[in-house]
Amino acid sequence: MNIGDTIQLKALGSATKRTKNRIHNRGKSGFKVRKAPQRAKFTDNRGVEWIQLDAIDNDWSGWLPMDEIEVINEIKCQENVKSVSNALQSDSERVTL
User: Fold this and answer.
1) Per-residue DSSP letter, 67
2) Torsion angle of C-alpha atoms 35, 39, 41, 44, degrees rounded to 10
3) For 28, phi and psi rounded to 5 degrees?
4) Could you tell me the pTM of the whole model?
5) Which residues share a beta bridge with 9?
6) DSSP secondary-structure letter at 56?
7) Of 40, 64, 62, 56, nearest to 5 (Cα)?
8) Which domain holds residue 10?
9) Among 2, 7, 24, CA closest to 70
10) Does residue 35 belong to any structural domain of this protein?
11) Please, are residues 73 and 7 in contact by the beta-carbon 8 Å criterion?
């Protein structure tokens, strides 16, 4: 997952009610990744990585814990795809020279 990617999530069975509710109520059309998974600096972060997301079809923005979610669909941001494609092309050019 990279910043700008669009993802659809599923809450794991062990997820908290908060996580399940956010995904059910705010994520029907998916989420856009605002910040990649990282250790959050807020209190009660439980020592796990969290991801900051923006809902696609409403104004919700917030953090979800990575250990409570499963990505069921991911659409790469075109800017990220171009960067990877350019890097691969550069690598292949270096190999063929």
Assistant:
1) G
2) 120
3) -60, -35
4) 0.77
5) 71
6) S
7) 56
8) 6-96
9) 7
10) yes
11) yes
Q: Please measure the distance between the N-terminal and C-terminal CA atoms of the chain and give it in whole angstroms.
A: 33
Question: Tens digits of per-residue pLDDT, 76-95?
Answer: 876 655 555 555 555 555 55
CA distances to 11, 41, 64, 75 from 79, rounded to whole Å, are 28, 28, 24, 12
Closest to 60 in 3D by CA, of 20, 18, 26: 26
Report the run of H or E that residue 14 belongs to, with start and end: none
DSSP string, 23-54: HHHH-TT-EEEEEEEEE--STT-TTSEEEEEE
- CB of 55 closer than 8 Å to CB of 27: yes
Residues 6+ apart with CB under 8 A from 36: 1, 2, 3, 51
Structural domain tally of the chain?
1
d(CA 74, CA 43): 29
- Encode pLDDT of 45-55 as tens digits: 888 999 999 99
The total number of residues shown for the chain amounts to 97
Position 1 in a domain: no
